[in-house]
Design brief:
Blueprint lengths: L1 H20 L7 H10 L13 E2 L4 E2 H11 L11 H22 L6 H9 L2 H6 L3 H15 L3
Antiparallel strand pairs: 1-2
Amino acid sequence: MRYNILLIAVLIMLLIVIKTAHAEPVINMDVIHKIESSNGLDKSAYVLDRYAIGKHQVSRGALQEYNERYGTKYTVKDLLDDEINYNIATWYANVRSLELLRAYHIPITRNNMLACYNIGIGNLIRKKEQQALQKYINKYEKYSTSI
């Protein structure tokens, strides 16, 4: 009986270690905000006729996907609300990007998740906007160490 309990405890610990070792990366949204504000977008981020809007620069496409997924009816104007903007940006960076990477059989890495967020899955697949993406990744790495 003691042996069985010990064996079960060891198996549970092993499963936890394996799950932790294969944990997916998480995008830090504080770093994303710092990148976006470093681009001088703080004031222009709140102009409704821009492609990406708000503190975390949520695109109109991400907004539409979020509304379809969750049955919400947020508008572009709602992206000016920091909490709504944060929630949609976090979902896109840490949930939707994983789904897209899996759907296209692209390795799940932090850089590929950042690519989905920054340049979009289509540009990642077509290998477009690589210079802009590398700048974004470099900023993410730089700001990650200071937050």
